[in-house]
Every structure is written in C-alpha cells, then in structure tokens.
Here is the input.
Amino acid sequence: MDTLNSLVDLQAGTVSREIFVNDEIFRQELERIFGRAWLFVGHEDLVPKPDDFFVSRMGTESVILTRDRQGKINVLLNSCMHRGMKLCRSDGGNTRAFTCPYHGWSYSTDGRLVETPGELVGVPGFATHYRGELDKKSWGLVHCPRVVNYKGTIWASWDAKAPDFEDYLGGFRIYLDAALDHRDGREGGSEMVGGVQKWRVKCNWKFAAENFIGDLYHDISHRSVDLVGIGPSGGKGRRDRPRGRTTIGFPGLGHGGLAELPHHAEPDYVATYRNHPEVEEYYRQVHEARVRNLGDRLRVTTGTGTIFPNMSFHGRQPRTIAVFHPISPTEMEMWRIYLVDRDAPQVVKDVARHYYLRYSGPGGMTESDDMENWVYATEASMGPVARRFPYNYQMGAGHSQPIPELPGGFDGGEYSEQNARVLYGRWKQLMEGGDWDALMAPGSHAAMEPAHG
Amino acid sequence: MGEVMADDRLSAMLLEHEIRGFLHAEADLLDDRRFPEWLDLLAEDVRYWMPITRNVRHDQSALEYTREQQDSCWFDEGKETLRQRVQQLQTGIHWAEEPRSRTAHLLTNIRIVSALPDAASAKEVEVRSRFLLYRNRIHDETDILAGKRLDHLRREEGGWRISRREIRLDQSVLLAKNLTTFF
Ligand code: FES
Ligand SMILES: [Fe+2]
Here is the structure.
C-alpha cells in the first residue's frame, strides 16, 4: 500500500483516489478510525423510556442503544457472545431483556439485576447441560466503554483511552451547540422529529463528510432547486441567505463547517417565514428572547458542519443531523434525523418539518442531486488508470487565517477547500495510528494549514 | 329484487373498470414523462404521503410506519411542492434526473375499498393497489421499488382527481440513492 504521505499530500493539496475505492484502506479505516473515534450513534429521543432500545451502527457493526431501568444509556454490540447471532433484528422497541433466537442466551441491561449492562442472565440448560460450569459474568454482551449524552445526541467510542467528548469537539463545539441549543440561546432544548431516514448510496462515505464540512463550491449541483425556489421566505433559492458565512476549520481535530465567525452582538432580526404569519411571529419572539438570554456572550449560527469522522449537521435551514455509515469502500448507508425546538408550537414544528423534507433526504429537492455526484465520482474513480490521478483540493491553500476567539480554528474565507484539507489531514493522522496524547496535542497540525499574512 | 342486485354488481364492475382505466392512464403519463399533465390529475388539496417503514416485533406493529403529520417520512407533499418537483425536472439541470430515468409503473391488485355515496353515482372512491416501480438510469443504475398504495379519488368537473395518495414502500432501508420519480 502507498504510504499515507503520498495518499494525502497536504502541501500539494492533493488526495489519492485510492482512499475512496481501495479495499485494504477501507479495512484499515474501520479499525483505526471507526474503532477509535467518537461516533454519533443516536438521539436520546429514540429511547425515551426505560427498556427502550434502538439499533444503530458504529462503522460496519450493529450496536444496540438502550435506556436501562435506571435511566442510563448504554451501547452494546449487537452480536450474541455464544456464537454470534445478531440479537436485535428489529430497528427499535421496548424490551426487558435481549433473548437470542439461536440457543436462547438472554442478556439484561437492568442495573438492579446485573452489574454490567448487557450481562448474561439466562442460559438454557445452565444447571444440566453446562453443569453450572459456565462463567456467566465473563460472557455478557460487549458494551461500549465510552458513551456520552451531549445535549440529547448520543456518542460512543470503542477506545477507552479516547479523550473526553468535549475535548474531542474542542473549539468547534460552539457550532454544534448552535444546532442543538434552543434558538433562543438556552442550552439543549431541541427535540428529534420521530423516525430515521436510512438509505444506501454507492459512494465512499467520505464524499458526504467532505460535502458538509464546507464545500460551498458545489453550488452548481443545486442550481435547479435554486431556480425553482423552495426557501422559507417563499420563492427564492433553496434557503434564505445566511449572514456572514465563511469556512471554519480545526486542523488539529478534523471538524469544520460553513458558518459565521463568533461575535458578541445579535444581528437585527430578518423576517423569514412570510407565508406563515404565526411562524414568523414565533421566530421574532425567539429572536427577542435570544437577545435577552445571550447578553453579550459569544455566539454563532451554523450552516453546515462535520464532526470527524462521519457525522454532519445543518444548524438552521434545514436543521438536521446526518450520519454516513461505511458499508464498503464504494457504498455507505446514510441516515438523517431532523430537529426542532422542543417547546415550539406545533405549527412551527410542522412548517419546519415540511421544509426539511423538501430539502433533505433521498427525496429532498436539494439533497437528491448530491448523491448523483458522490455516486458517479466514486464510480469514475475505481479504474486502475483513474486511480493514478489524485483529486485536487488546492483552493485557498495558504490563505487561511487563525480565528482569535477560537484557538486552533482557521478561517479559510467564503470559498475555500481548507476544510477538506482539514478532514483528510485528520484522517491521515488517525490512519497513522498515534496515541491520543499525540493526536490531541495542540500544534500537531502546524504544517497543515499555514496562515499567510 | 334480483335485477336490483344485478344492477349493483354491474355498477361496481363499471366503477372498478373506470377507476382502473384512470390509474393505468395516470401511470402512462408518468412513464411517458408528461409530468404537467400528470399534475392536472391531482386535486388542488392533494396529499401525497410516503411514511418510513420500520422493522418491529410482532406485538409492536403500531411502530411499523412513521406517523402522518408528526414524524419524518420519505414524502409529505401537497400540490405546490409536487409542482415544484415537476418544475425542477424541467430545468434540465436537476442532475439526479439528467439524463432521465426510464420508469415502468406496474400497477396491480387494484380494488375499490369504498365508494361514496354508492358505486352507481360515486363521487369519492378509496382504491387499494400494489405497485412495482422499476427505474433504470444511465447504465446499471436500477431500482426496484414495490409496495402498497392507498388512493382517494374524487370526481370533479373534468373527471377523476387524486385527492390523497399514501405510498407504503416495502423497504425499511431505502435501497435507492434518491427518490426523484413519482409513485
Ligand atoms: S448464538 Fe446466541 S445463544 Fe447461541
Ligand atoms: Fe449539496
């Protein structure tokens, strides 16, 4: 295999097509990236009650997100420890125990019954066939050692040594907060619209991560929907024009987005939902509350962003979370969930949901065209000749500026491929396999995004 | 008495024949890509809805489909957004459909569930059917999407109009990269 330096050449601004199509590189990604990084596995609204479960994925593997009877959230590998059977083949529901249909081993997440979530509690023939000799305690389900609930979003890492999630987010956290906090500035306060869109796309998963980390340049992809006009203000564009949008990336972390630079004063309110006076009134009141709640605190609004490696979000129009689960080098399963303010009136939630669904997802008038590009770029990069020629990510190289309010953050300007370089730079670091101390050391990325005057 | 019954059965047969003809002609418009004419078959207040299907345990079937007007779904459209979708197809730069998909809408098991006020003078009917939407594009891009449809048709001036279409796709993970055709 080529060396990582020739695959991702940040000085030249090129990335080899191999990392999008090669089986061996894919296999290594599963171990070195999906086996270590913090991954988005779901939302607490998917498991609101004790014994609720939701089947999710981490990398190519199936995991069960559960809320136990103590209210704690667990992430368990969805594979029986006896001989591998996939325990949950439904997408979610409510259950007291997971019983394997193969030989009947059963596992509990109930912290009163068992010490470790997922512990083995029932073994048919334990006294007779096993003669009581099976060490049940050591054959519980594999539980993910690191799980956090961050403002309703659930994240997990297989690496016990992974940094704390908030350190992993670093300075980019303020942008994720802008998507998860209430619009009026209160922390948290968003809820998930019920149901998860899941669909298969024959492209490498990184095309999607790269798209949402900040590829404003792909505007032509969406010209047809811009011409038709589906924006909330009625008639113009695919969304209302965001204010002060620029490319913000964190080379030492791998996260980035298209968003506002941080600022202290709330810009004046701009009327948006002209066709829906009730909704318009709600957002006007939310704006006033935001001015009061935030005072002169630092704030941002977010357009799109990617949390390394495979979770992206839109913060405003629409407001949604996407995950790109790797299936093979040339196929992913994409998931989308949608967010609204929990205490918003129903009419506001309805108008938001309708807008999200005409924008996003496989039927979205905007997103449907993205998949066309990702799929056929993957296809046209598979051949042995095509693979010799790297992709070009040179736009704006050498023109990034540090962001004083956000240590480690760089502003690449409105149109720049800075954030793709951020993504692939971090990808390379994780593929090199260093320990987390080195991976999280400030300045470990110094060469990645030189800031010229 | 016997003749009245025969009349009822005849009315039901005639109605079913008429509705089947309507739905087949509608499918022709879609497969012939005569989208503006297809739009004319939709009532102004049409609701075109396609929930997400989930894998659930036998006793939790209430969770099998996402809830209308509340949850996420694949489509939740009115005439305005369907019109926008047709406009998007007509721009010639809607890349997901450029070049265009070849589609074949195979419609079967068409059955009238209810007719109001009655079959002989029906103003509104509820029709169940199965669909198989075959889509092929470029070289090997092929989707086979099958499921159930529940249509509400209303007799308006100028003929039957679709006032509601509920599409239940028999897939939980959508095995297509996008949904840029109509059902
Ligand atoms: S594989 Fe699960 S009990 Fe045997
Ligand atoms: Fe896009």
